[in-house]
Structure formats: C-alpha cells, structure tokens
C-alpha cells in the first residue's frame, strides 16, 4: 500500500504530506484546485519525464517521496533480487529535480535509473486515467484474469517448468542437428580419406624405417664387400689389426719394470685390442644379416611409394604427422556417429516433454473455457450496474503455438452499443469505458490476483446518480482487500470513502498554493453536501449527504 506521499517545491505546492488509509481513499476538490497536480507529482515517482517547469521555486530542488508498505509481493521481491537492491518491508521511492533540470531517482536511498524506477513502480501502483492506454488491453493481463478465476496457478507453474525443459531440449537438438548437417557435408570425403589410411595401415616411424632399410638393401653388395674388407683387416687378414695390438701390448708389458707409466699404457692398449675385436664381431654380425632380396626390395619400394603419396597429398613430411591426420579423421567420423545417437535420444526426450507440456496446456485451456461464460455474464452485469447498459464484453480463446503460458491466447472484445460487433478493446473503447471496465474486471478477480495500489483518476466522468452510486459500492467492496485511491467529482463515490481528502487553494504571501487536508466526519458531510447542491449546501443536501455516508 501507499502509506505516505511527500511533495516539495512542485508546481504550486510548496510542501505537502499526505498519509493514506489502507482501504478506500477519496480525493475531491473544486476544478483547478490542484488534484491533477497531485497526480503529476505521483507521476514523477512512477518514472515519468521530468523538467524544470515543475519547480515552484527555481532556486530550490523539487522532490517527491512515496512510502510503500509491501508484503508478499513476489514481483517486487524479484525486482530487488535482480537489481541487487536491499529489500525491506517499507520501500521509499524518491525523485529529485535540480534547478538545472537534472533528475535523480532513489529506492531506499540507493540511486536507480528511470527504467528501473518504472519497472518497480509498475509493481506498486496501477494508475487509471481517462484516455490512458490501460493494461486491460494487454493480452497478458487478460490471460492472467481468466487464469486467476480458473485457479490455473499450479498448472501454469508445472507448464512453465516443463516448457522450459522442452525449450532447452529443443535448442540442444537443433544445435546437434546443425552440427550433423555440417558434418554430413564432409563425411563421404573423410570416409574416403580414412580408407586410404586403413588400406596402407602405417605403423609409427614406418616410412622412415623403410626408407633406411631400402637404402641399405639397394646397396647390399657394396656394403657387404666393404664390411668384409674392413673385417678382414681387423680380424682375419695375414696380419690382422687385432693380433697386432695384442702383440704390441705383450711387448709393452716386458718394459713395465723400467718405467712407472708403461703399465698404464699397456692396459690402454689391451683395452683398445678388446674394443677393436668387438668391432670386428659386430661388423661380422651386420655382414651376416645383409641379404639381397629382389622381391623384398620391390615390396619396400611399393610401400614407400604409397607412403610418399600420402605425405604429398596431406602436405606433411613424417609418418607421425600422417598418423595424427588419421586419428583426426577417425575422431570426426566417430563424432558424426555419436551425434546421430545423441540426436536420436534428444528427439525422444524432446517429443516426450512436448507431449507432457501439451497435456498440461490442454487442461489449462479446458479450465479457461469453463470460466468464460460466467465471467462474461458477471462483467456485463457490472457494466449495466455502473451506467453502461448498452456495453457488452466478450472473451474468446485463439489457438496458438505452445508457450510457457499455454496453447491459446485470451482476448477481450468490446461492443459499446449492443451492435453485436465485438472489436478488440483498444480499437473501440474510450478512456472512461476502459477505466470502468477495468474496475469491473478487477473487482471480480481482486481476491485472486496480487494487485498493486489501484488509483482511479476521474473514471466517473459521464455518469451520475445510481450509476455513480454503484461505482462507489464496487470500489468500497474492492477496497476490503486492496488499497484504492480515487479522484472524483461524484458525491455518491465520495460518500463511500474510508479516508476523504480535500484539495484546495490558499494565498500565502501573495502566492497561490495547493494544500490538502483530511476531512473529519462533519467536514465530509459538508463537502459531500457541497458536491450535491453547491457552495452553500441546503439542509436537504446535508441530510442527503449523511444518508449517503451510511
């Protein structure tokens, strides 16, 4: 609820504080007294555009503060969480306009921008004026009204969760299908490339090893001749090197007694003889392992030729690089296969979630359809009651694609003259008709919808007598569960007030100022009597006013 409104240096208001009642607050006053100025000040809190023309004293800043008491308002709690603001049971919104024209906004003393201010205020205040585009024309609001009457809250919660899962699953499926489509473009080519690798079946370092072996085999005869010659010189000739070293080591041993360094030299010479003999043995082993094989030579040439073709084709130089390419091709083809399996699973999952969401949406549609006849009948009865006997409302459901709110769209249609030509509200309903229609609709759903403060600015224009009385009765009934603030010229409505505020002008230091006072019972009787019969109310008007207030 709006607990308090403080205004300073705005238009012809010097300083003003209004403490509101939590039920039906009525504001009256003569034309031009400043009722619209109050609404203009409230507009600043709601995030409307500000400029320096509203400053009463251009040397001082203007500010408007609104104090709200909020309990169990999920939309407000969500706003504070999303904007990282400290939530409290009392919310203070302040708007300041400096003499320079700069505007600043605060929520609980924390600076906010105008967009944030508008979002928050939309959850706190529902302001209805003549000629405003009211939220009753919103398809979202129309759907929420029918769903509230149909008690669809639990089903909508279920649908929102399941539809969210379905949407996520569908997005994942579409992403995988796109990946598969891209992969399918190359799958045939990659399969062909991989078959070339699997045909040759390379082993690590194979081409390098084959190249070395081929070089040796191609020169086998020359290599064997040279190896035999070297082996003979070392170990098998007339005077093999190995035997010469052995003999020299023995001679050197005979001289050990004559010099201390000779023994070490003898040992080194003996080691050299052993090493040379080992070399000879290794040469013999290598020579014995070399055999010229024409068939083997041909196989190796063919193998190397096939390998060189792959190296050239893929622009690499080593066997390991080719094997890396092979692994990449295998991974790509495996990915395509895995994507296919994943797509199949996701298709089943997505289909199941869609069926589940559709089933819930169908229940919601059934519930909505059940409410339409009674809702239409009740609203039309209220329209007649409040002075619109020729006006009719109709509600239709249009089938739509499945969403988080169901599979149909709720639309309110209006006929102002019983022509049976129903059109969307925004096309045919006037501001006054929309306001009174909104009052009728909200009076039906007030106990089921979490409504903010309802402010009606002269929605009674064009009605009087019994119709005005009925509007007052509806407002009074609605105020038992919601705070209402209404600006009115109708005594029948003013008589229903829980708190009656009178707006008036006064002269202060040769300047006109607007002020507001809360009327006591006697003052209320006098004010309502004036609304009935003029500046100087008659005794009959006073008695009539008292009767209205009962």
UniProtKB/TrEMBL annotation:
Q: One Pfam family, short name please?
A: SMC_N
Query: What CDD domains does the entry give?
Result: ABC_RecN
Q: What does this protein do?
A: May be involved in recombinational repair of damaged DNA.
Q: What keywords appear on the UniProt entry?
A: ATP-binding, Coiled coil, DNA damage, DNA repair, Nucleotide-binding
Q: Which residues form the RecF/RecN/SMC N-terminal domain?
A: 1-505
Q: This chain belongs to which protein, by name?
A: DNA repair protein RecN
Asked if the record carries the keyword Nucleotide-binding, the reply is yes
Its family remark reads:
Belongs to the RecN family.
Name the species this protein comes from: Ferruginibacter yonginensis
What InterPro entries has UniProt attached to this entry? DNA_recomb/repair_RecN, P-loop_NTPase, RecF/RecN/SMC_N
Residue ranges of coiled coil:
255-282
User: Key word Nucleotide-binding present in the record?
Assistant: yes
> Which superkingdom, per the lineage?
Bacteria
């Amino acid at each position: 609820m709006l607990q308090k409104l403080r205004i300073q240096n705005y238009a012809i208001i010097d300083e003003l504080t209004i403490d509101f009642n939590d039920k039906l607050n009525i504001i009256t006053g003569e034309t031009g007294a400043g009722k619209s100025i109050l609404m203009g000040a409230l507009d600043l809190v709601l995030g409307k555009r500000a400029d320096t023309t509203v400053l009463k004293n251009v040397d001082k800043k203007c500010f408007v503060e609104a104090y709200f008491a909020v309990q169990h308002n999920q939309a407000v709690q969500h706003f504070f969480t999303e904007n990282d603001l400290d939530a409290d049971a009392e919310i203070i919104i302040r708007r300041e306009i400096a003499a320079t024209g700069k505007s600043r906004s605060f929520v609980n003393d924390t600076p906010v921008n105008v967009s944030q201010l508008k979002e928050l205020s939309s959850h706190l205040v529902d302001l209805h004026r003549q000629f405003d585009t009211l939220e009753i024309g919103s398809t979202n609001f129309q759907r929420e009204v029918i769903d509230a009457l149909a008690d669809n809250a639990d089903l909508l919660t279920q649908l929102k969760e399941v539809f969210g899962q379905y949407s996520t699953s569908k997005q994942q499926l579409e992403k995988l299908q796109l990946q598969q489509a891209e992969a399918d473009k190359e799958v045939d080519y990659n399969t062909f490339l991989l078959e070339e690798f699997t045909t040759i079946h390379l082993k690590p370092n194979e081409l390098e090893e084959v190249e070395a072996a081929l070089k040796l085999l191609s020169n086998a005869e020359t290599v064997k001749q040279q190896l035999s010659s070297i082996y003979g010189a070392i170990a098998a000739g007339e005077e093999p090197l190995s035997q010469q070293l052995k003999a020299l080591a023995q001679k050197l041993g005979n001289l050990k007694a004559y010099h201390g360094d000779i023994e070490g030299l003898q040992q080194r010479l003996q080691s050299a003889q052993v090493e040379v003999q080992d070399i000879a043995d290794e040469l013999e082993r290598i020579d014995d392992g070399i055999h010229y094989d024409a068939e083997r030579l041909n196989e190796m040439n063919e193998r190397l030729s096939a390998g060189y073709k792959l190296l050239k084709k893929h622009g690499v130089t080593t066997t390991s690089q080719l094997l890396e390419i092979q692994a990449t091709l295998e991974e790509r083809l495996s990915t395509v296969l895995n994507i296919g399996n994943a797509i199949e699973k996701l298709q089943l999952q997505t289909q199941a979630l869609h069926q589940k969401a559709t089933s819930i949406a169908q229940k919601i549609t059934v519930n909505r359809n059940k409410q339409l006849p009674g809702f239409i009948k009740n609203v039309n009865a209220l329209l007649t009651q409040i002075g619109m006997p020729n006006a009719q409302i109709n509600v239709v459901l249009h089938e739509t694609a499945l969403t988080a709110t169901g599979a149909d769209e709720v639309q309110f249609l209006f006929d102002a003259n019983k022509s049976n030509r129903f059109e969307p509200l925004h096309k045919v309903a006037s501001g006054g008709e929309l306001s009174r229609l909104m009052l009728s609709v909200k009076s039906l759903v007030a106990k089921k919808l979490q409504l903010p403060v309802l402010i009606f600015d002269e929605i009674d224009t064009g009605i009087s007598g019994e119709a005005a009385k009925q509007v007052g009765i509806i407002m009074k009934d609605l105020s038992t569960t919601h705070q209402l603030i209404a600006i009115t010229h109708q005594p029948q409505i003013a008589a229903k007030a829980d708190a009656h505020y009178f707006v008036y002008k006064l002269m202060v230091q040769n300047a006109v100022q607007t002020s507001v006072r809360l009327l006591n019972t006697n003052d209320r009787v006098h004010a309502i009597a004036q609304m009935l019969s003029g500046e100087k109310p008659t005794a009959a008007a006073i008695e009539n006013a008292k009767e209205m207030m009962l």
